[in-house]
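Sharing in case it's useful to others searching the archive later.

Someone asked me privately for the predicted structure of Acetyl-coenzyme A synthetase, so I'm posting the question and my answer publicly. Question first, with the sequence:
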Amino acid sequence: MSENHVYPVSAELAEKSLLTNEQYLADYAASINDPEAFWGEKGKILDWIKPYTKVKNCSYDPGHISINWFEDGELNVSANCIDRHLASKGDQVAILWEGDSPDQDQSITYNELHKRVCQFSNALKAQDVQKGDVVCLYMPMTPEAAVAMLACTRIGAVHSIVFGGFSPEAIAGRIIDSKSKIVITADEGRRGGRPVPLKANVDEALEKEGTDCVEKVIVFKNTGGDVAWHEQRDLDWETITAPQSEQCEPTAMNAEDPLFILYTSGSTGTPKGVLHTTGGYLVYATMTFKYVFDYQEGDIYWCTADVGWITGHSYLVYGPLANGATTLLFEGVPTYPTTARMSEVVDKHNVTLLYTAPTAIRALMAKGDDAIKGTSRESLRILGSVGEPINPEAWEWYYDKIGNKSCPIVDTWWQTETGGILITPLPGATDLKPGSATRPFFGVQPALVDNEGVILEGAIEGNLVMLDSWPGQMRTLFNNHDRFEQTYFSTFKGMYTTGDGARRDEDGYYWITGRVDDVLNVSGHRMGTAEIESALVSHPKIAEAAVVGVPHEIKGQGIYAYVTLNSGEFSSPELYAEVKQWVRKEIGPIATPDILHWAEGLPKTRSGKIMRRILRKIATGESDQLGDTSTLADPSVVDQLIKENAEL
Ligand code: WTA
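And my answer, the predicted structure tokens:
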């Protein structure tokens, strides 16, 4: 499908939507010309306990990176997500829960959510959780995950959610870095008919050195599965929550008080604790949710992301609830128990807005019409995509099959670091081109720069940067402002470096080309090659490892690992399986290498640096395009690797 294939906004759609193209253009210009005035007005989308008088105070100056929005205002996130809706829509469903098994569901009204959050907030307080304390969540996709998040915000505790698919090793690392005082988990999760051993993983994590900052573990009884119990440390959710009062006064938080930490992968080192604060983040999540999904009263919104990822924070919980929407939380997977489960859930709950990831779309597309069998999906109004570039074929399938050729697709580009969507179509305003994230949201100033940081004009490809701050931007890396500056502001001075490449076409539309650094995107999950390499070399038989991404039909990218064994060790099918299993255990199933390439040596420069550029080309079978190999210490290594790759 050519990029010239345009899906224009119909007059009918423009009419029904919150914004037309003219309004978008006018508001966008206003947001850039006078951000103070624009955001000063838009900040009123929230209820403030103490209104702000200052709007924007940000510096991208080298050595003085500082980002502040609404800095003298005070508010509470849970009050904005719950309390303020009670008078008008207390009986409206806030959280619609669909279990892994289709016969399990729950509807939780705003009144009920208020009660549950207040009680759990009081339970946390009773455990001496104070404003500023870090609480680690390792939760299944049940309403309690949202309740725990909102309860933290109600009392000013900072949540740090660890994705339920991560290993004990990964949990421990995050607990230690964030100094979590409490861990909230469940006995087990459920996915695709199988139990996920959440509590057992937490138990194992807490055996590791350095985790003694954790005082208590609160365990929600989800499946009723058998778990070990540590009398001194473990608390049953229900037992500590049921006796609590149903009222809990929300704590007034400064706009720049920390709201949450979320660990994400970078190109080097251990995962980074991205820190978001209260006011700007919520203003931005609320605004983007409203306009990107064209949210209107009565919509049933379903985001398939897990709460363990940023999408689950901004567009499963905070954005929708701050708008008073009904948000559907799904415990399972899109293809269980039937291939058409996703479409069945849409029909069952009359979902109007659906937000999912290209990897899920491609997995369904591979099943053909079985993915929509027996369903109408007639309730749908708008479709969204997030997490990785969506290839035009998958876009067209999503549009034709899931959306019955009648729903615009918003291909939303953003990152854990950006807090909310930065580049995206708006349903009633933006003509769509399959594969393009199109244009910037209000207040967002993208630019393309060359490798020297020179800004490029017109239709061209380059490194995607942001020239100025927006309210949802991360403020720092937890306890590591130097690394924050180094990672995001040192490559190109005076701008925020996204780590992505992009192309801009003649219409000013952005086409994200993918990461330009050593970060992989596997099924929409971000992973650093360095993390996987360090997991590999921690295996006693492995001397050296280098990981690169290769195209993968469903996952977007697959993991290709070059592994050099210690001398005296030999490869075997058993070791192949063992090494894969090792990585699963060290990081989690999502990091399992797709391909192991036993390599006797890796291509290095004379100074000993591994030449990844060459490894990428060999892995993708493009060995005729190796480029300059003159700096190689031993060129014969390359020939050997090419030969081995052909035999894999
Ligand atoms: C990629 C997820 C193309 C990108 C919200 C980014 C995308 C990384 C898109 C962030 C999109 C996300 N088109 N690429 N619509 N959305 N990405 O932090 O490489 O998990 O840098 O945040 O995902 O992943 P993260």
